[in-house]
Batch of 2 targets.
Target 1
Amino acid sequence: MKVTYYLEVISSWCTWVEPTWAELKQRYAGRAEFEWKIALMNPEDFPVSREQCDWFYRRSGGTVMRSPTMLNSGWFEAGRKGHYEAPNLVAEAARDFGFEGDEIRLALSHAGVREGQKIGDLATAVAVAAKAGGKKLNAKKLHAAAVSPAVKARVDASTQEFFAHQINQRPAFVLTDAIGDKAVFSGLVRLEPLVATIDAMLADTAAYAAHKAHHGGPPPA
């Protein structure tokens, strides 16, 4: 089966779900395929001030997640008016240099919501990513890829794919299996409902395979 994780790099809720994502990948290694895709937030979805951002952080991190540390709103820039595409474009561009995993986007997220770096600035986002990628990731080439039409087209396509599921909350998880089942979770960060659903889908797929092994395929029409 396949698990697709839709995210926005600078989203606080995507930050909170990362331990769940890591646990799923470890628990179902070899039994499920995992991929992440960018789903850009609309400009109006972002806070309009640092004060408002901190209010959201106290709610999500403190009240809901019981985190001992608060996220850092230093990334916020009023002049951007909700346009923080840069870290997402950089994370997507890093794929072109062999970084299909989580390391680059996690470095960007950490720099923004943990350290308060202004990763909405493309140069800053590129510098963070290049440092995380080491010698394998050239900053100049990464910058060129991040502003390329090809990378923008991929990000736009994955964002539209996200909305095509008729959801609007990130993180989102779309689970699909070999027998055509699909489950969609939007906005949930807890491990338990995802584990229960993946286990059920894997069990059903195994049951279908066992039935076919014993009885063959369906009779012809």
Target 2
Amino acid sequence: MEKAKNPFKAVTDAVVDKAKNIDAVEIVKQAVKLPIVRVNRSNFLRKELRKYYPEKVVRKAIKENPASAGVSRECVNTIARQVINYETNKVTALSFAAGIPGGFAMAATVPADITQYFAFMIRTIQKLAYLYGFGDFELNEDEVSDDTMNQIMIFLGVMFGVQGANAGVKKVAAAAASKVSKSLAQKALTKTTIFPIVKKIAQAVGIKMTKQIFAESVSKVVPVVGGVVTGGLSYATFKPCAKNLEIVLKTCT
């Protein structure tokens, strides 16, 4: 007598097949195309800083950076925590909604879920970077320059705890703080050992995300309950990643 197939295993296999072997670079390229991903540096800094400082300080912070404008580190840290909480709550709520479909319907949503997750990661990267003195990432929906992609991958590496990424951010921070032009700073970074490790960082991020999405995908097989579990997993994984980046930016800027 033929043994009955396990429907749960069939569904999880279908979902995991969609989630495995993530190409982090390709996911970032897709995420950048989403309207939600781009953060206007000037608008963001103005919105956040005008709660605490007069317009003169805000304008200088936009023209240069918050620190040189006299914005206290305590204020920057406070806004950073607010940013992390806000973006975590947003991605958690969307993950819950995405987790409600059950069964094989989940397999079709996995690529979009991953792209959306990365989009919120990149949003958080931009906001924290702008607070701690970095320049505009110059993201556009058509394509991402190699320099911008390298920088994003280094920041993602920090968020996921990839070895070597912290040193990369410190180098980028040093270049951002220097008085040389952006193009010269990028050229200098390219000659260092930082950007050559980007490929390794991208691979490591892909592996870590594969493991995470595997856990989320399996939890999402059961409708409603899956949504609750998935939202919880997103909260539990997204916030620590954002905090990792915040901690490193505090120490290198």
